[in-house]
Amino acid sequence: MHFCSRTRTHGSLSLALLILLSVAVPVARAERPVTHDEVTTDASSAVDLGVEQERAHHWLEAIETYEKGLKHWPENGDLKYGLRRARISARRWEISGGWTVRTSIS
User: Fold this and answer.
1) Which of 29, 68, 82, 98 is the most exposed place for a label (fewest CB within 10 A)?
2) How many domains does the chain have?
3) What is the Cα–Cα distance from 74 to 86, expressed in whole angstroms?
4) What is the pLDDT of residue 94?
5) CA distances from 37 to 20, 67, 91 (A)
């Protein structure tokens, strides 16, 4: 009988650990915005990063990425277009009651 209760205890602990890990791992891997500083090798990388941030609805980070990219590659049309698109999306979000955007649309 002592063996049986020990087995139940181990089984219960294993189940609890499994449940804990199934909840904790996704929370630990929660999406975080990638910053411009992590990818600055070329204009294409900056555009890709900005698009990724926009898809995650991190418009302020995308705006920052495009602005920093334009400091390095001021004539890049994709960066200019991405900046406009991110600003419009941010403005729409602000208008819908999301938050206040601290940047002006030029």
Assistant:
1) 29
2) 2
3) 17
4) 79
5) 34, 12, 24
Examine the domain organization and report whether 90 and 50 are in the same domain.
yes
Dihedral over Cα of 26, 28, 31, 37: its sign? negative
- Candidates 14, 76, 23, 16; CA nearest to 45 is 76
pLDDT of amino acid 4: 54
How far is residue 51 from each of residues 3, 14, 15, 67, 71, measured CA to CA in Å? 58, 42, 41, 13, 18
The whole-number average pLDDT for the span 71-97 is 92
Q: What is the mean pLDDT of residues 76-103?
A: 84
Which pLDDT value is given to residue 29?
42
72 and 43 within one domain: yes
* pTM for this prediction: 0.57
| 66/82 Cα distance (integer angstroms) | 7
Distance CA 103, CA 106 (A): 9
